[in-house]
Amino acid sequence: MSLRLSTVILPYRRWHEGGRTSWTRAEQLGFHTAYTYDHLSWRSFRDGPWFGAVPTLTAAAAVTERMRLGTLVTSPNFRHPVTLAKELISLDDISGGRVTLGIGAGGTGFDATALGQEPWTPRERADRFEEFLPLLDRLLTEDAVSYEGDFYSAHEARNIPGCVQRPRLPFAVAATGPRGLGLAARYGQAWVTTGDPKLYENGTPEQSDRALRDQAGRLADACAAIGRDVRELDKVLLTGFTPDRSGPLESVDAFVDFAGRHRDLGFTELVVHWPIADSDFTADEKIFERIAMEAPAQLNG
User: Fold this and answer.
1) Phi, then psi, of 36 in degrees rounded to 5
2) How many other C-beta atoms can be found within 10 angstroms of the C-beta atom of residue 225?
3) pLDDT per residue over 15-61, tens digit each?
4) How far, rounded to the nearest angstrom, does the alpha carbon of residue 195 sit from its chain's CA centroid?
5) What integer pLDDT is reported at residue 245 of this predicted model?
6) What is the pLDDT of residue 125?
7) Are the C-beta atoms of 59 and 20 separated by less than 8 Å?
8) What angle is formed at CA 97 by the lines to CA 281 and CA 1, rounded to 5 degrees?
9) Which residues of the chain are under the pLDDT cut of 50?
10) SS3 string of 155-190?
11) What count of Cα atoms within 13 Å lies in the side-chain half-sphere of residue 249?
12) Measuring CA to CA, how many Å separate 134 from each of 28, 106, 189?
């Protein structure tokens, strides 16, 4: 099984002060996809520069040619399916059909309260996501959509000419719970996980591997329940949130070992964070670039 290597570039730098360079360099290094986070602000970056995901990806589309682009991940926390669909169709057109939408139910961070609402409970997030994703699917595949739901509505929403990618751009659905995995099975072209967050601080790599194997097994069960072959879905691991932390980026050999373990668990794509000094994503840029250039050949040779 081949393993693709992708990166996530946080949108914290002005485009003309280093922001552009990361995206063009990512394509030069051969990354399969370069993603960015779709947040209004995020964790320790809250009080510093942070730019919007869709404009950033639009700019990235204009300065790259081959590399895929995407969000990791978009959520209903501050998005509405009608307006999001219009932006995605436009982005897919500008990029020449290179966009993947990473999407999940959202969490309890700053996005959850930025519009003045109280944070939703896990059940409330799941309820909204269960309505959000099917409506977005329709908006991206039908010329005109009307819908009246518990949380979202659309009235003759037009999305002509639709996506360049047919029938629509791919969804990479982030999920670990039963309802989210069910949505990934039904609507996803890929499944995304960061592992088990309960293991991040005190867990071991072995425990993490078991948790990931369990998650993948439950995805397979969700696919089987609707008669879908789980092998149709790519399995994407967003790294940096397992007990290994930044260890895999310390050398090419360490990364190949880490990546090989997760390839054997069935993952088809690993996403590494572009290095950011003095942050949780600190890494030696020269080693990072060597990993990008050398590791795929060792893993897929």
Assistant:
1) -140, 160
2) 12
3) 999 999 999 999 999 999 999 999 999 999 999 999 999 999 999 99
4) 13
5) 86
6) 97
7) yes
8) 60
9) none
10) EEEECCCCCCCCCCCCEEEECCCHHHHHHHHHHCCE
11) 23
12) 36, 16, 14
